[in-house]
Amino acid sequence: MNDPVIPNSAIDVIYRRGSVRSYTAQKLDPDTIHLLLDAAVRAPTAIHGEPWAFVVIQDTNLIKRLSDGSKKVFMEEARRIHHDHGARAFDTFKDPDFNFFYNAGTLIIICGKSMGLFVAADCWLAAENLMLAACSMNLGTCVIGSAVTGLNSPEVKAELGIPAEYSVIAPIIVGVPDGEVATTSRKEPRILAWK
Ligand SMILES: Cc1cc2nc3c(=O)[nH]c(=O)nc-3n(C[C@H](O)[C@H](O)[C@H](O)COP(=O)(O)O)c2cc1C
Q: Are 141 and 61 in contact (CB under 8 A)?
């Protein structure tokens, strides 16, 4: 029987996407970035609010500096939440060479305007659109949730030109994968009711 999944169809891309944590040095050009952002804003949005805004960073020194700052904030947070215990799971983060953003050449930060009921939902839907669009173009992505608190500090927001009424919601790295993209397994959907 023929494979019913059409190459690069939505279902194909959904199954091919995997978080990428190793990238080549190849830089993404502005047209590619615009394509990804245009795909992101096609996401559904509550009461057509379109509360998202984007910061694109391709300055690798700045990305490394943001990694160092976010790592520090994350480690402090982890220590506080896990009372030191369990924070050891984050030992690799202590390595000064460990880059939170895996040396990706592009970091796209999705920000949401105010924290209304569905602002985060809208921004995460935009994030998934962006990641699936990237996958369809054979680009890799990874959400870096551990950087959110650090990126939301007033100092970082000011440096990145993020107005006070916006919050960082989804930092996503993008680049050309260095090697095959691995996918991870999922549990079967747990169906609570089907009446
Ligand atoms: C909200 C969120 C935060 C995440 N934060 C990180 C992160 O800080 N660092 C990282 O390497 N991966 C991060 N990930 C990626 C997950 O680890 C990954 O999606 C998960 O292991 C499933 O693997 P897959 O994306 O390859 O299917 C995050 C994913 C989500 C949705």
A: no
